[in-house]
Amino acid sequence: MIANELQPDKWVELHADYLFNYAIGKVSDVEIAKDLVQETFIAGLNSAKNFKGDAAERTWLIAILKRKVIDHYRKINSKKGKAEVRIQYSDQTDAEGEWLEERVADPFVKGGDQEIENEELGLAIQNCIDKLPKKQSRVFTMKTIQGMSTEDICKELGINPSNLWVMIHRARTSLMGCLNQSWF
Amino acid sequence: MKISCEQAAEICNKSQYREASLMEIIKLKYHIFICKTCKLFTTKNTKLTKLCNESKLQILSEEEKAKMKAELEKSNN
Ligand SMILES: [Zn+2]
């Protein structure tokens, strides 16, 4: 297999919802979460030259987002933030040092797999949704996460209800398989 | 009263979104009484609905994603 490669032009499509839900879990504010995701993508772009291809693109982006979350808490200087910074920095040598985006490199994301094992239910589901074919994931998300009516989805996507239910069936079957081991 | 496994699955999917009619639900109940495969599917499918509801997942709108994409392209140049 070839080394992982970055595809910034696909980041929003491939990772935005996952990173968004990750950020919401950390900052509990939709607007701030959105900003952090945007900042993460920009920072990722600026430090792309440091990406060595050892980690998956998403794992690498999450490592950057984690730093953005820490920066955010530093800025507002809340107690929760201080605790979080302490935890995150505890095993690193640059404990008090300023975070430099350009220094994000693959070694940082060691333990990423561990992280994924512990991820919350929402992230596990989003992870599985992201593995679906694009149209299926779109239909499933509109129907299940956004709670849109069958009629509205059909109108927006130019499909008929039987198409929709076939796609929902395929998506749900895949998700059951994808989530099976840890959640069923 | 009799329905195929495919029909049972479709009714089961619709019922996850409360879009199955009472008559369809009755047919499904009868079918899963005699079909183990569909009974298992219905159990798992219902569990999936429960997990999705519990997850409190949120997604960015297409508009917000387009904005993000534009912002990203701007800093890529
Ligand atoms: Zn059956």
UniProtKB/TrEMBL annotation, chain A:
Domain RNA polymerase sigma factor 70 region 4 type: 124-175
Domain (RNA polymerase sigma-70 region) ranges: 12-75
Recorded GO MF terms: DNA binding; sigma factor activity
Superkingdom per UniProt: Bacteria
Keywords linked to the UniProt accession: DNA-binding, Sigma factor, Transcription, Transcription regulation
InterPro entries: RNA_pol_sigma-70-like (IPR039425), RNA_pol_sigma-70_dom (IPR014284), RNA_pol_sigma70_r2 (IPR007627), RNA_pol_sigma70_r4_t2 (IPR013249), RNA_pol_sigma_r2 (IPR013325), RNA_pol_sigma_r3/r4-like (IPR013324), WH-like_DNA-bd_sf (IPR036388)
One biological process term in Gene Ontology: DNA-templated transcription initiation
Similarity comment text for this entry: Belongs to the sigma-70 factor family. ECF subfamily.
Name of the protein: RNA polymerase subunit sigma-70
Source species of the chain: Aureicoccus marinus
Taxonomic classification: Bacteria, Pseudomonadati, Bacteroidota, Flavobacteriia, Flavobacteriales
Automatic annotation (TrEMBL), chain B:
Origin superkingdom: Bacteria
Listed name of the protein: Glycine dehydrogenase
Annotated organism of origin: Aureicoccus marinus
